[in-house]
Amino acid sequence: MSTTFEGTPASPGIVIAPVRVLRWELPKVPRTGIIAPGEIDREVERLYEACEWARDRIRSVQSRTAERMGEAEAAIFDPQILMLEDADLVDAAATLIRENHLPAERAFEWRVLEWESQWSHAAHPMVMDKLADLADVQGWVLRRLLDLPDPAIFDEDDGPVILVTRELSPGLTAELERERVVGIATDLGTRTSHGAILARSLGIPAVVNLGACSDVVQNGQEVILDGRTGHVIVDPSEEEKAFYRERDFHLRNWEQELLVLTHLQSKTADGKHIDLRANIDLPSEATVARDNGAEGVGLFRTEFLVVGKHASPREEEQYEAYRSVLDTFNGHPVIVRTFDLGGDKFPAFLHMPKEDNPFLGWRAIRVCLDEPELFRMQLRAILRAAPHGDLRIMLPLVNEKAEIDATREIIEETREELRSEGHTIPENVSLGIMIETPAAAMSAVELARAADFFSVGTNDLVQYTLAVDRGNARLAHLFNPFHPGVVRLLDAVARAATSEGIEAGVCGELASHPLGTFLLVGMGYDSLSVGPASLPEVKKVIRALDTGEARKAAREALQAADADEVIRILRAHLPRELDLSLFAGSWNLTPDAVTS
Ligand code: PEP
Ligand code: MG
Questions:
Q1: Is the CB of 531 under 6 A from ligand 1?
Q2: Are the C-beta atoms of residues 455 and 529 closer than 8 Å to each other?
Q3: Which ligand 1 atom sits nearest the alpha carbon of residue 456?
Q4: Is 423 a catalytic residue?
Q5: Whose CA is nearest to atom 4 of ligand 1?
Q6: Which of 33, 123, 180, 418 has the CA that lies 20 to 30 A from 465?
Q7: What Cα–Cα distance (Å) separates residue 495 from each residue in 435, 500, 503, 504, 520?
Q8: How many Å separate Cα 539 from the centre of its chain?
Q9: How far apart are the CA of 286 and the centre of ligand 2, in A?
């Protein structure tokens, strides 16, 4: 009998192959006693030599990655190199040798643990990426200090295999050979982890976040891995294999179909243009977003500038980041969201207090307004970048008109300050808000009078409306954006924006679900913003739908008694030509809704 694991799809493609389990562990540091005073200088020297060596090794992986995949992928290794140049890591470990008389390997391990403890109370993917980078760095340095070989991945006689491991480090992934490793399955990790990004660049299908998969499967067992649904089937039957082979065939055709769409307009079948934009987490994603057909950036998350950093980001660094995305989008709108900190994103330098309910706590716009230095620095960088394109500013988690007014005041003061320094700053930089709470949705008319545009963050709106933690895997089945409570709030927001004459957009995950796209266009939303990979699928839905039919479906959905009924209504009105089982964006619905 087969066993199925469900994880997070990280790199598309279906493969059937035997498993190779890689049990990768950080080197164990022997618990030897303290060192004699006469040994201190030698240990400090060993520490610096090992860090230098690790940096060289990472640089050589980086240059091979640049040759194999490109500069953007090679840049993934920059944070690791920066860590090894950070005095707060390396010099602080040397201080531990000098003051606590620890051997070099124990001092380094100790300092890494201290770094981790500053970050690890947050389970945000960005923090987890930093932790994975740090673990990679730790592995290199400790192997050098302890004189250990690199971990071996393969036996000589291994054929093509699906690699199963606990977590994928970027260093390991970048060195994988496409011919030998045809799929990757990991217990931990996220879609946005560096390992997953590299797997996508290498074109290796991957599923992450599979729980205890690597403890259960054995070398040589046959596995089907579906990088679109996140399913990993161990010891599949002949019928299951036949089903997946056929699915693979259909998906390959589907991907060809989507490719053609990138250059076509984002217009409904009856001719209404929907602004289709991209959500990006890093400036380096802008090019992919543009190449996938984005007409701008609907959500530029800026937390990468602060999360896991030990000092607040410099104005110049921020300016360069905003400017580079504006340059890529050459006159199309780029919506920069101000720092959305707190919740699950805690930069070490802000010393944020530990809270019982961080998602109901000091986060997003509340932090921005309470930390004027950080906020003003960000607004200075944003305003300086503004003349280089159609830049718009967006505030996260707004509940009060006063939060918009206060921000406008700061923007005014910042503009004057910059002008007095000789900068040319445009007069009207658009200031919009995210609608992410039921309170904001219910007072959307009043907020629309103060804001220049709305963008609904459905990820948070669903979390706060349903009281379901968006990151809690146990409650994932309850995190349903088609709940009538959410649907009615979405409708109220669209109506408020229309009546007050401002743009209504959505930038949460719901926009990338085919039924979500259909519903939102039916409600009258003018712009949708989704992850770069989802753009072609969303365009496919937009081009197939008729706004009259979508409006009718949305009106009916507003009367539904529960989420299942909403889904049934939307499916009944969805254009027949759309086969939901082919959409990567529909994987997170109930299986019944996807396949029936
Ligand atoms: C959202 O909440 O839907 C959103 C787009 O913002 P984030 O996912 O960054 O919280
Ligand atoms: Mg949000």
A1: no
A2: yes
A3: 3
A4: no
A5: 457
A6: 123
A7: 13, 9, 11, 9, 12
A8: 21
A9: 20
Does the domain spanning 258-595 belong to CATH 3.30.1360.170?
Answer: no
- Whether domain 3-24+152-239 has CATH 3.50.30.10: the reply is yes
Identify whether 310 is a catalytic site residue. no
pLDDT tens digits for range 177-225: 888 899 999 998 887 778 888 888 888 999 999 998 999 999 999 999 9
Q: Residue 56, Cβ neighbours under 10 Å: how many? A: 13
Residue 457 Cα to ligand 1 middle (Å): 5
Dihedral, 145, 148, 149, 153 alpha carbons, nearest 10: -110
User: Are residues 486 and 461 in contact, defined by beta-carbon separation less than 8 angstroms?
Assistant: yes
Where along the chain do the CATH 1.10.274.10 domains lie?
A: 37-145
Q: Are 224 and 14 in contact (CB under 8 A)?
A: yes
Q: Whose CA is nearest to atom 9 of ligand 1?
A: 301
Handedness of CA 329, 258, 268, 579 (dihedral sign): negative
CATH number of 37-145: 1.10.274.10
Nearest-angstrom CA–CA distance, 389 and 325:
9
Ligand 1 pocket residue status of 491, Cβ below 6 Å:
no
Condensed to tens digits (0 to 9), the pLDDT of residues 336-384 reads: 999 999 887 778 788 777 888 989 999 999 999 999 999 999 999 999 9
Q: Which residue out of 51, 213, 368, 507 is catalytically annotated?
A: 507
Place of tokens 């890529």: 328
Tokens of 207: 């599923």
